[in-house]
Amino acid sequence: MRKATIRKRSGTFSDIIKEINQITVGWINYYGISRMKAFILETQQWLNHRLRQIVWKRWKKVRTRYAMLRKYGIDHEDAIKQANSRKGYWRTSSTKILHRAITKEKLIKWGLKDMSQLYEQRYLKD
Prior knowledge:
This protein is mostly helical. It is about 70% helix and about 0% strand.
């Protein structure tokens, strides 16, 4: 999972999500018979954090960051503060503003499969 989500990775965001979906579906199918709900939730949170980091890095310029934050519903003041932040990518990706802009639902809309939902489907099937 770490290799699939490195920051310097090339390719489109949808390619990254496709590869992540393949990995997660494989994990769920292989380990789905065990009880690992806490692990799934923890891994999903880490993955969302990592994907926010990738998105933030790809919005390289302050102007782009500001425009995208505004597009995703962040008000002017907060968008200016966040776009001009000098914090690192990992630290920035855990801020409340970025969580409001790039929600879990938005990541799912972009094609990411929800690990907990996959696990519940697999676990209830057996």
